[in-house]
Amino acid sequence: MILTVTLNTALDITYRVRGLRPHASHRVSEVVERPGGKGVNVARVLAALGHRVTVTGFAGGATGEVLRERLSDGVPGSVLRERPAGGGGPVDALVPVSGATRRTIAIVDELTGDTTQLNEPGPQIAPAEWGTFLDRYEELLAGASAVALCGSLPPGVPVGAYANLVRAARAAGVPVLLDTSGEPLRRGVAARPDVIKPNADELAELTGSHDPSRATRDARRRGAHAVVASLGAEGLLAVTPEGHWRAVPPARLTGNPTGAGDSAVAGLLSGLVERLSWPDRLLRAAALSAATVRAATAGDFDPAAYRDLLGRVAVSGEAGAA
Amino acid sequence: MILTVTLNTALDITYRVRGLRPHASHRVSEVVERPGGKGVNVARVLAALGHRVTVTGFAGGATGEVLRERLSDGVPGSVLRERPAGGGGPVDALVPVSGATRRTIAIVDELTGDTTQLNEPGPQIAPAEWGTFLDRYEELLAGASAVALCGSLPPGVPVGAYANLVRAARAAGVPVLLDTSGEPLRRGVAARPDVIKPNADELAELTGSHDPSRATRDARRRGAHAVVASLGAEGLLAVTPEGHWRAVPPARLTGNPTGAGDSAVAGLLSGLVERLSWPDRLLRAAALSAATVRAATAGDFDPAAYRDLLGRVAVSGEAGAA
User: Which residues in chain A are contacts of B151 at CB distance < 8 A?
Assistant: First the structure.
């Protein structure tokens, strides 16, 4: 089982409107709700790839109830047609909290195609709730083949939370991928996670360098065993103990990049537990990421585009100490 | 008991953000949720004035549950300090439906003070649910001293719904106020409600005239016994069988006009059941409306401002057939 941790889960709400104008009143023509937060998105893609996956983190309030109902309803629209046996939707191991799970609102303007995003901060997590989570996490690690720690921290969770969770995973012998930003990333990296997957902005904020090649090397010196930087249309740049590679999609993609990074994380993790080589992991991650940009619904991936892209992503680089 | 009908109840959510920019991502600094929909707002003000009030209409889904919980929690922040005995919060007589109660999102820009509004359409109401509501409405009318029919119709409710509800109220001998717009207003007016309270736009849409004086007379010819037009900063214009009057607040008000019309409806209805004269009803309605513009929270009214404005609203006009 692959474990994904989403401390700040979300009920992702997408509104379609005709022409968003500040100070005006808008009739929403379509409302779509689904479970969200980076680790939940990663789990959805892993389940679609046929992996057994468990979701933990926090959920509470009416929004948390809707999130949990939808999670157990399965993952309509994002499932590969030829789903491998042994799959199934993500298993819900979320820890209940008294505060309400946050909403995120994506307002899609039908006239321009632009998306405007509003993110609630998330519930206040009490110290006892954080303690309950730590116990649950330790239990879940015992059955996990890999763990992904994803996204922002809700109020009340200590800023060094991910450093703790990385150390616990390493102590349990479970490979750990960290995908966050800012101070939680800085502290988490120092606890020596197996993989981090920053985007260009997160990498620059961590290292102070806007040169991706230089910044990925610096991030390794700070503690990450492997760094996979997601560079948008320029694909993925990986610097690992086994070598360094770049995976580039065939052409500049048009579409919605929401969730592309989460799909890349799912590609990396699934490749890790399937013991693929680094070039094959990066190929999968880049193809999933590009197939997510091309999907009709934000955060889903297009299975046909994924299969097509597997043959068209270019991976270059070399093995050996980076 | 005063009955208010809100067929399209809402969970009103207010977000504070620093600078709303289309196509950008925003962190919401404050989230406030409360029960909404015009009739719910009217009920909140009536309860604050010390009237016994019952709320009916539809509620469903997780948003409907939150709405009902908050409704029974009472109405913090909007209650007059010297609340008359016999008051209490609105009584919940909402009819459960399988669809989810809509959300409205008000995005307040901290930099400009502007509000941007997003309104979900509301749940699909099944014919059987509409039938259940009609039975409930008839039962509730038996104990009502007046009824207000407020706001838009959710999908699935017949466009002539308010005409039916007006006729049922008149058959039961219960005075009925209608506050809606468009085709539901046009059809509802033809069923001869005791009072309608259109704003300038609604009145122009109903009658085709942008001259409020002419349009109010025309609206009466279409079937409304009394027409009270809410004209924003210019106050209220009433044309009734007993005479015609105008109630004007002392000065152009600055603040948030959200809910000012609902407060005016509460003023008119409470004055009706207390058998106040038309000038006194209008005085109360205009003062409540202005005190709502001045309140810190959208849709609440400021009790101190209300008491002050009662002495400062100017009512002019004359009794006699209009």
Answer: none
* Domain at B2-319: CATH architecture: 3-Layer(aba) Sandwich (3.40)
| Mean pLDDT computed over B8-23 | 94
Q: Would you state the pLDDT for residue B232?
A: 87
How far apart CA A154 and CA A68 sit, in angstroms, is 18
pLDDT in tens, B40-78: 999 999 999 999 999 999 999 999 999 999 997 754 433
In DSSP notation, B150-166 reads ESPPPTTS-TTHHHHHH
| Angle between helices B200-207 and B212-221 in degrees, nearest 10 | 60
> Residue B280 is which amino acid?
D
Residues of B in contact with A23 (CB under 8 A): 112, 114-116
- CATH code, residues A1-124: 3.40.1190.20
Phi and psi, residue A166, nearest 5°? -65, -45
Q: What is the pLDDT of residues B250-308, one digit of tens each?
A: 977 777 777 899 999 999 999 999 999 999 999 999 999 999 988 877 778 989 999 99
Provide DSSP, A148-177: EEESPPPTTS-TTHHHHHHHHHHHTT--EE
Domain ranges in chain A are 1-124
Inspect the interface and report whether the beta carbons of B116 and A24 lie closer than 8 Å: yes
Flag whether pLDDT at A178 surpasses 60.
yes
Q: Which two tokens stand for residue B281?
A: 């009803």
Burial A272-285 (b: 16+ CB within 10 A, else e): bbeebebbbbbbbb
Q: Residues of B near A (CB-CB distance < 8 A)? A: 15, 17, 20-29, 31, 62-63, 65-66, 105, 107, 109, 112, 114-121
Chain B residues whose beta carbon lies within 8 Å of the beta carbon of residue A123: none
Identify whether the C-beta of residue A289 lies closer than 8 Å to the C-beta of residue A230.
yes
Residue from B12, B16, B13 nearest B111 by CA: B16
Smallest CA–CA distance, residue B68 to chain A, in Å, is: 12
Sheet of strand A115-119, all strands in order from the earlier edge strand to the far edge: A30-36, A10-17, A102-109, A115-119, B25-27
**pTM score of the predicted model:** 0.87
A28 contacts B119? CB cut-off 8 A: yes
pLDDT at B80 (0 to 100): 43
Burial class of residue B275, CB neighbours in 10 A (0-12, 13-18, 19+):
exposed
Strand duo B2-6 + B146-150: pairing: parallel
